[in-house]
Write a structure and sequence with these properties.
The protein is mainly beta and 111 residues long. The chain has one domain: Sandwich (Immunoglobulin-like). Helix content is 5%, strand content 42%. The structure holds copper (II) ion. Copper (II) ion binds next to loops.
Length: 111
């Protein structure tokens, strides 16, 4: 995520592009950084994740979440177990205005 360009990994949403290729059964660890000056609530469809580390300890939680606020200038690390439901889905900022401007990506989970 960067600045006011509303991107993830430097790219705006493209429904024809797969941004993350995942393998069924894997455990992924993602770090989401937010160099912008506003908070972005990061949301994933299909699977829930566990926040294991963050710039603010209050964001770390043993429970499963589908959304976590990534603070302005901060970062969040979480683990995600890729199980069941193969196929494509999206992850995006949960502020609709940001999502509409391109802050969204597609992942595809395959065997
Ligand atoms: Cu946002």
């Amino acid at each position: 995520m960067s600045g006011m360009s509303f991107t993830i990994d430097g790219k705006t949403f493209d429904h024809e592009r797969v941004d993350q290729h995942l393998t069924m059964g894997d455990v992924e660890e993602w770090t989401i950084t937010n160099p912008s000056m506003v908070d972005h609530p990061f949301h994933i469809h299909v699977w829930q994740f566990q926040v294991t580390e963050a710039c603010d300890q209050r964001l770390v939680s043993p429970g499963l979440k589908d959304t976590v606020v990534v603070p302005a200038g901060g970062w969040v690390k979480f683990v995600l177990h890729i199980t069941d439901f193969p196929g494509k889905a999206v992850y995006h900022c949960h502020i609709l205005d940001h999502e509409d401007q391109g802050m969204m990506g597609i992942f595809e989970a395959t065997a």
